[in-house]
């Protein structure tokens, strides 16, 4: 047993293992950084969404700016520089002020102009300019209109903003949720709210875009609630099955007349963990993990076996089977440790940019998928080592497997289906493609992810046989079959 533990320890703390873990951490960290930066160019907590309101009494123009961040929280201490211009675009006044603890900046200007515009040209906090909207509000004889400059990012449709006219001034703003970035919150903000205002909020989810935003049919909607204050938050019940669908929000009065055109957005946001998973599927799953499994097995087992080093150890006496078990256990443990460290780092980086950690389910799926893949490739190299005589043969076979089961596998599977004259449409084709995909350990992470998501290609996962039993069976095959066969042939030569 001491010899077994020594061999495992030797594998875990070997130079190649350390290099491998460092490489995993670097690549995973860079990938997570790229996903984090692209997923949220403007961090929700550090974003300014400025919602102005103008009204006029006599010869006084009243300006009220309400500022929230990407989570819908008031932004205090925001320094806003703005300008008020008349109909000929001559400046009425330039203003500079700071929002109070409630997120408001209010000021009044004496001027009798009936047509004017109000716009921002800079806003910043603690000396740093904040990303957000550059809005211009126009006032014409009591009528208000808003021109927004959309700051599109990966986080769309968050920060989408809509404003109705002054007959019922109403903002609807999409926001991020503090607990789950996949959830969409919508704030209904009425800058001129009175106690008699009680707009009713309804919503529905549709597969097609709403082409008539001025039409409201109560029978086709769900009542969300009554807005009993000037700020009301809506969180429609959305699930992963609603991805790609359209959400319509309606604000109506007591007689069900629409107060503002329907507020519509497409539910397209993906969780950071899911995005990371998709990013890893190509380079990480097709190249890095196979290299990790193949070369780790080569350096810690195949190289010693083909060079005759294992023969000197066996004479002590330690059987070939025991050596194979200890080295394989050491390889598998090093894979687990390396993946845990690298994914843990990725989780921290994504949290820094998105405000949430990867869900435990997604984390487990990513970890298990790539762990099985790495063990599967290592097991294949252990098995090959029982028959190849030289280091060059083992290494050449390993590299060949990398290209065949990794890079070339989609081409090979497509070629096989073509030669078999299987039509590239229908469930039968998808099933056959799935079976061929399962032959390569490179595609097990994708198979596991498809099971969790419930879809494969364009069909429902269960329709083509992806369930807990089939996924478990494929995973166990790659973990157990190559290693057990390798152990069998190693013991046979004792």
List the helices and strands and how they pair.
Layout: H1 2-12, H2 15-39, E1 49-57, E2 60-68, E3 79-86, E4 91-98, E5 104-110, E6 115-125, E7 128-129, E8 136-140, E9 143-147, E10 161-163, E11 171-176, E12 184-189, E13 200-206, E14 222-226, E15 231-234, E16 246-252, E17 263-266, H3 272-280, H4 283-307, H5 309-314, H6 320-354, H7 360-385, H8 391-407, H9 409-419, H10 427-438, H11 444-453, E18 455-456, E19 459-460, H12 468-492
Antiparallel strand pairs: 1-2, 2-5, 3-4, 3-6, 6-7, 6-8, 8-9, 10-11, 11-12, 12-15, 13-14, 13-16, 16-17, 18-19
Helix pairs in contact: 1-6, 2-3, 2-4, 2-6, 4-6, 4-7, 4-8, 6-7, 6-12, 7-11, 7-12, 8-9, 9-10, 11-12
Number of domains: 3
Taken from the alpha-carbon principal axes, the silhouette is: elongated
Q: What's the Cα radius of gyration?
A: 31 Å
Helix percentage: 40-55%
What descriptive keywords fit this protein?
494 residues; alpha+beta; Immunoglobulin-like; 4-stranded antiparallel β-sheet; 22% strand
Quick structural overview:
This protein is of the alpha+beta class. It contains 12 helices and 19 strands.
